[in-house]
Amino acid sequence: MNEVNEINEIDELRSAVEELTAKVRALEDQAEIAQLVARYGPAVDSGSGEAAAELWTRDGVFDVVGHFTMRGHEDISGMVQGSGHQHLIRNGAAHVLTVPHIQIDGDRATGRGYALNIRWDPEADRFRVARVSANTWRWARTADGWRVVERVNANLDGTAAHRELLAPTADSASASDSDPGPDSDPGSDSNPGPFPVPVPGSKEAK
To answer: How remote is the C-alpha of 205 from its chain's centroid?
Structure first.
């Protein structure tokens, strides 16, 4: 009888360890993804194009809805190093991202949150919020850690489809079931609607 009890206790202990291990890994994943998002603002505001690009997978997508879509490290780095963005940061600007709500499903994750574009106004001697946008994210676990597969950024300018980007999802599994993975082209199906097109050549970080 004692032997049976010992076996049951070992099984219970093994189950508890497995459960704790899974919880710790989930917390570590949440923290790593949050830190990944937190690195974006300092990278683009310091003009560090390569550092910004490396937050994405090699063929990752950054879709600024209605403005432009960047695909891959070269596009993202080129935007940061381009004249439009360089002019912006030389005149005083900050890209502030909120901590996203993160849903993890194995080696994939999705999230949503806000991005603020804050600019220095020398005439008023103060900063002003120039843009507030809804953001959706898709991340993937890679050999180098978590990376962005896709970021969709859409101004909260009253457009209903842009607001809908922030709506809670039914569950994380439904979002990841159709995820094509970090080495495929996510395409532009996530573009939720129309948006004013800026003057050509004025590409800047959002």
So the answer is: 13
Q: Residue 43, class by beta-carbon neighbours within 10 Å (0-12 exposed, 13-18 middle, 19+ buried)?
A: buried
| Rounded mean pLDDT, 17-37 | 96
Number of H helices, E strands in the chain: 7, 7
What Cα–Cα distance (Å) separates residue 204 from each residue in 32, 67, 94, 105, 167?
26, 10, 12, 32, 27
pLDDT tens digits for range 147-204:
999 999 999 999 999 999 999 876 544 444 434 343 433 333 333 332 232 333 446 7
User: Residue 52's beta-bridge partner residues?
Assistant: none
Q: Locate 8 and state its tokens.
A: 């049951």
The enclosing H or E element of 192 equals: none
Residue 146 burial class via C-beta count within 10 angstroms: exposed 0-12, middle 13-18, buried 19 and up: buried
pTM of the model: 0.79
